[in-house]
Amino acid sequence: MTEDTPPAAPAARLNHVSPSRKIKDRAVQGLVYLSFLLALIPLVSVLWTVVGHGIGRLDAQFFQFSMNGVSGKDPGGGAYHAIIGTLEQVAITTVIAVPIAVLTAIYLVEYAGNGRLGKVVSFFVDVMTGIPSIVAGLFVLALWLLTFGFEFSGLAGALALTILMIPTVVRATEEMLKLVPNELREASYALGVPRWRTVTRVVLPTALTGIVTGIMLAVARVMGETAPLLLTIFFTKAINTDPFTGPQGSLPTFIWDQIADPNANAHDRAWTGALVLIAIIMLLNLAARLIARRYRPAAAR
């Protein structure tokens, strides 16, 4: 060791933490745990209530029959028509909204820079984020049904849900793309790879898990919307597997119709419908996580 080299600090001094800092650290840690427990209370309460009230009618008949010809006081009936309608409407919504939203986010992060068009697009995305769901339903009702003359259908409901889903996916994808280190982009550019290939082969795979999570959050949001569906798909108790023709059922409108009925049997069906809706959302989230884990880059596994 030369004369200019400072002596090494004793290990005890390096590892020493003052008592006040330890107290602050434990206090903040306790607040974090307390906040987590407080956040779990409403979640556990909702799940407990829905499972407790809905498990009684969770039988095979609920998944095999519709409410066609079944009154509120009757013990039978099911939500087959509503489950089929919800799955079809959300599938159409996802097919329309996700490509538009992801491409918009790619433009904002990778191409727009500080340009005027990028700022305008970002502003309108913010505006769409705050649009009430019933306004989206009224817009589709006025444009698609009244102006263009199309009939009530699952497609009309999907268009209303698309308006609600796009801004959520745009913002989630945008934030995930911003988290990708610029060093990865620069390394790709240094190898002569064009920007579009860098985005598709480097940036998107790196951010895939977060993007999928944002998409599933958006799906969970639109899957429970009721007001825009009442205005666009109307309401039916019969089975309609064609989302492009005629009124179609959905789980949110099914729950709304059954809970408005004063009979106990109808309320049981409403709670079971809510339980099935939660279960579908959980299964979709699980499937999306498995797909994202399967196709993300090997280095991130």
UniProtKB/TrEMBL annotation:
Keywords, ordered alphabetically: Cell membrane, Membrane, Phosphate transport, Transmembrane, Transmembrane helix, Transport
Q: Where in the cell is it found?
A: Cell membrane
Pfam families (UniProt xref): BPD_transp_1
Annotated transmembrane regions: 31-51, 90-109, 121-146, 152-170, 202-223, 270-292
Which intervals of the chain form a coiled coil? none
Which residues are in the ABC transmembrane type-1 domain? Answer: 83-288
Enumerate the InterPro entries for this protein: MetI-like, MetI-like_sf, Phosphate_PstA, Phosphate_transprt_permease
Q: Which domain of life is it from?
A: Bacteria
Keyword Endoplasmic reticulum in record: no
**Keyword Ribosomal protein annotated:** no
Family in the record: Belongs to the binding-protein-dependent transport system permease family. CysTW subfamily.
* Protein purpose: Part of the binding-protein-dependent transport system for phosphate; probably responsible for the translocation of the substrate across the membrane.
Q: What protein is this chain from?
A: Phosphate transport system permease protein PstA
Q: Which organism is it from?
A: Actinomadura parmotrematis
